[in-house]
Specification:
This protein is α+β, with helices and mostly antiparallel strands. The chain is built from 15 helices and nine strands. Mean pLDDT is 88; it is low at 1-7. Residues 149-163 have a biased composition (Basic and acidic residues).
């Protein structure tokens, strides 16, 4: 009898249980350190010479997140007390340990460059190229984390406003009012406009204009009550099966989740060759027509929870916008024709013993084009078993959010400004993806060894 050897799954936890030298080498080798070193190193020969080992500082800065060292002060103490750890970080025997001020200057240089974002994209692209990201379903969600400082106190008193004139506006007043409102809307920052304004904006501008200052945010808890926090949001697009972060975005805590979605979607479409991706799944907080439109432009399907907004009941359709017969039985979703973008519904099972079945009153087959209303008609159809199975995969992004907070110190922000806090967020996302890539590479090597044995 032939014995089939099943390869064991090598996960991140096993990677982190390895010896420090092997662990650091596996994770750090996934990142192009030379590129980061070149971006922050002194570009001119003029001025004072560089006495610090910047390569060692960069590696130790990464290892701080790998070893879950909470502060730079604790990192410096570890470097002074643990000679082997210092060697593993790339420092030489003759190198002095950098001060807190030196690490602060390193963070400043990183905050003035987009090198961490580019390194994150390089790691993700390597995972795609090597075949570790072949997700059909992508999940998008946001999570909040607090700023280091408390919200500043409000200054000044409320200005007295002129009371509004009662009664209906005259025709001239209404025209002037509409003109003023249109001008006011046109002059708003991009992320204060309606979401549809983002559809035709280039990706670079979308990412550059994201507000990053710490602000008050609000969300509903499990009891339906509002919870407030002062800080930031992490917006993530995650592969449902691979659990890689495909796109990430850092913003103020006050930014609506839906306003970050188009930047994430365009980033995946323009920067990653995700040929296997077919579905984007999001919760009800992203139920906006422009998001459906962006996903449709990408040639993919939306699986988004519906958020009913003071909408009347549709006659002849159920709550999932499925056609119903005269006796209000829902038709059965049959299939989707991608060529004509059409949903096909067949007669409900109750028609088998319905007296109206043979009267020619009820339609045997319904076909609806999803472009009639991208928000209501999705492929697969809302409420179908296929739709529910895809939507369940949205929990992947919630798991990644939990990993980032619990194991990668996402909610341990040590910087006061949004610009420097973004360095912390970019480091967390980069280390997470680099760890995933390192674990997958070790898993692939183990499989090759077992096959060769």
């Amino acid at each position: 009898m032939t014995i089939i050897r099943q390869p064991s799954l090598f996960v991140i936890q096993e990677l982190y249980d390895m010896e420090p030298t092997q662990k650091y080498e596996a994770i750090i080798s996934a990142i192009d350190l030379d590129r980061i070193y070149h971006a922050i190193n002194k570009q001119s020969r003029l001025g004072a010479p560089v006495e610090l080992n910047y390569a060692g500082m960069i590696i130790s800065f990464f290892i701080r997140y790998i070893e879950r060292i909470p502060t730079i002060k604790d990192l410096i103490k570890r470097l002074n007390d643990d000679f082997v750890f210092k060697m593993n970080c790339g420092f030489l025997v003759s190198d002095s340990t950098p001060s807190e001020a030196a690490y602060s200057r390193l963070v400043t240089k990183l905050s003035e460059s987009d090198i961490l974002e580019k390194s994150f994209e390089s790691v993700t692209l390597a995972a795609v190229t090597e075949g570790f990201i072949v997700d059909e379903v992508i999940a998008i969600d946001a999570t909040h984390f607090e700023a280091r400082d408390k919200a500043p106190a409000k200054k000044g008193e409320k200005s007295e406003t002129t009371p509004k004139k009662r009664g209906r506006k005259s025709k001239e007043e209404r025209e002037q009012y509409l003109k003023d409102q249109a001008e006011k809307e046109a002059n708003l920052p991009l992320y204060e406009k309606k979401i549809e304004a983002q559809l035709d904006v280039p990706l670079d501008i979308l990412r550059a204009e994201v507000p990053i200052a710490p602000k008050w945010g609000v969300k509903k808890n499990a009891d339906g009550k509002n919870e407030y926090w002062f800080g930031y949001k992490a917006h993530l697009a995650v592969g449902a099966s691979s659990q890689y972060i495909l796109q990430s975005l850092f913003s103020s805590g006050s930014l609506n989740d839906g306003k970050a979605a188009i930047a994430l979607l365009k980033g995946m479409d323009q920067r990653l060759p995700l040929t296997s991706a077919s579905y984007q799944t999001l919760d009800a907080g992203y139920d906006f027509e422009p998001i459906y439109e962006q996903i449709h432009r990408m040639g993919q399907q939306s699986v988004i929870a519906y958020n009913k907004r003071n909408e009347g009941e549709m006659i002849g359709f159920d709550k999932n916008f499925v056609p119903t017969c005269l006796r209000e039985h829902s038709y059965k979703y049959d299939s989707f024709d991608p060529k004509y973008e059409t949903l096909k519904y067949t007669r409900p099972k109750e028609c088998s013993d319905c007296p109206l079945a043979n009267e020619g009153i009820c339609q045997k087959v319904y076909k609806i084009k999803i472009t009639t209303d991208l928000r209501r008609y999705t492929a697969p159809a809302r409420g179908s078993k296929a739709w529910k199975n895809i939507f369940k995969q949205r929990t992947a992004v919630e798991r990644v959010n939990a990993y980032l907070k619990e194991f990668y110190q996402l909610n341990n922000v040590r910087y006061r400004t949004g610009k420097r806090a973004k360095v912390h967020f970019d480091m967390v996302a980069l280390i997470y993806n680099a760890s995933k890539l390192a674990a997958d590479r070790i898993q692939a090597e183990l499989i090759q060894q077992q096959q060769a044995a």
